[in-house]
Amino acid sequence: RFACNHMDNAPHLCEIAQSQTIGPSNPSQNLDWKLFRNSIGIYHSIELSDSDTDKWEQIEVKFHEMTDIPRLCLSTEWKKKLLQISLESEKALTPESWYSSEEGLE
Q1: From residue 66, how far is each of 3, 13, 39 by CA, in Å?
Q2: Cβ atoms of residues 36 and 48 within 8 Å
Q3: Which of 7, 19, 58, 74 is the most buried (most CB within 10 A)?
Q4: DSSP state, 29?
């Protein structure tokens, strides 16, 4: 779909993209839970190891019942790193004629 909507000079790529049936390559995961589990020490003095699966499952059930999930904010340094990685990936995955054009990396 990206090739068809944004890369006018690639009709064969668009045709190939439309002819393929592709399933999700990256199934979604609840990152809120993963972040919370890894940083639970900030919120509570609990000390559990990875082998305490029953207790972790109980905590996860309660976590998903919460209406105000605690969030961690990324530092400015990490935000800049993520932006740089994103821009580098976009450049690597698109032809130079696109990303150096007016509609490219704006």
Answers
A1: 40, 45, 16
A2: no
A3: 7
A4: -
* Residue pair 17/1 in contact by the 8 Å Cβ criterion: yes
Minimal CA–CA distance to 9: which of 95, 76, 83, 88?
A: 95
DSSP-derived letter for residue 74 is P
Contacts with 94 (C-beta within 8 Å, 6 or more apart), sequence order: 7, 104
How many Cα neighbours within 13 Å face the side chain of 20?
11
The answer to whether the beta carbons of residues 98 and 6 sit under 8 Å apart is yes
pLDDT tens-digit readout, 29-46? 778 888 888 887 777 777
User: How many angstroms separate the CA atoms of 86 and 80, rounded?
Assistant: 10
pLDDT tens digits, one per residue of 89-101: 888 887 777 766 6
